[in-house]
Amino acid sequence: MGNFERILIVDNDPQFVEALRFTLLSKSFAVATATSRSQAQDIVTEQAVDAVVLGSIAPRGDAFKLHQWLRQSPGTRKAALMVLDSPPEKQLLFGWRRDEGLQMEADDYLCKPIEPAMLVLRLEKLLQENAEMIKVLIADDHTVVREGLTAVLTLQKDMQVIGEAVDGQEAVDKTMQLKPDVVLMDIVMPVMSGLEATKHIANACPQTKVLVLTQFDDKENVASAREVGAWGFIPKRAASAKLLDGIRAVFKGQQFHEALAVCA
């Protein structure tokens, strides 16, 4: 852990920020700090962060507004988020309001005071859990299909759509460039078919698992998909019910062939 992870600390207590920053740097994390909502938003807009430690900032209520913005912003929607509330004796003046707490979408919640070393241990655990994020590339020549799949996957805490392709050749090119964990691959596409693209990906990027998603779910297509290296096959008519199961299965190295009602 560390080395590549970038942490943003948002807090207006300079003594706390410096102690936490020093501890994180000693663990080889990259660290950015902010003392206000606007400053934090500027930092996140300019550079990606892997985790945000959201402490106390003024005025009261700005921490919650920043929390909402972070959860809606594409760059931080799935970053680990740790909320540090004010000490119990100061919560009426500086802490989170009850209605804000009920709407909180943080991955961890703590109250000050807390030792930086203990906080870092919990932060490392959150980052480890986030490391299991499944990176997905969607390859389909229909815009409506790509948008629909993206909308479904974006709602999943363990999945991230890192790119889209409109034909088989682009699917191959983007797989080489982005190194997704899973490619959702349509069969019938221009320039290069999904089956041909799957064959290229299986040979050149074996760590990427291709899950074929198509309206043609006959046994011949299933067999062809298997022959070229696909890890799974899901008919589009079953996508809403089985797509997420299929992505998680092939990510773990399990074959998933819903068309044959087999999941091994």
In a few lines, what is going on in this structure?
By secondary structure, the protein is of the alpha/beta class.
Question: What key attributes describe this structure?
Answer:
264 residues; 2 domains; elongated; 5-stranded parallel sheet; 12 strands; 11 helices; alpha/beta; Rossmann fold; single chain; 7-stranded mixed sheet
Question: Can you give a write-up of this model?
Answer:
The chain folds into 2 domains: 6-130, Response regulator (Rossmann fold, 3-Layer(aba) Sandwich); 134-263, Response regulator (Rossmann fold, 3-Layer(aba) Sandwich). It has 264 residues and is α/β, with parallel strands linked by helices. α1 crosses α6 (116-130), α2 (37-46) packs parallel to α3 (62-72) and α8 packs parallel to α9 (194-204). The relative contact order is 0.09. The protein is built from 11 helices and 12 strands. α11 (239-251) links the parallel β10 and β11. The protein has a 7-stranded mixed sheet with strand order 7-6-8-9-10-11-12, sandwiched between helices. It has a 5-stranded parallel sheet with strand order 2-1-3-4-5, with helices on both faces. The model is unreliable at 259-264 (pLDDT under 50).
Largest sheet: 7 strands, mixed
The helix-strand sequence is EHEHEHEHHEHEHEHEHEHEHEE
Indicate the CATH topology of the largest domain. Rossmann fold
Q: What overall form do the CA principal axes indicate?
A: elongated
Give the CATH class of the largest domain.
Alpha Beta
Q: Uncertain regions: pLDDT < 50 for 5+ in a row?
A: 259-264
Number of strands: 12
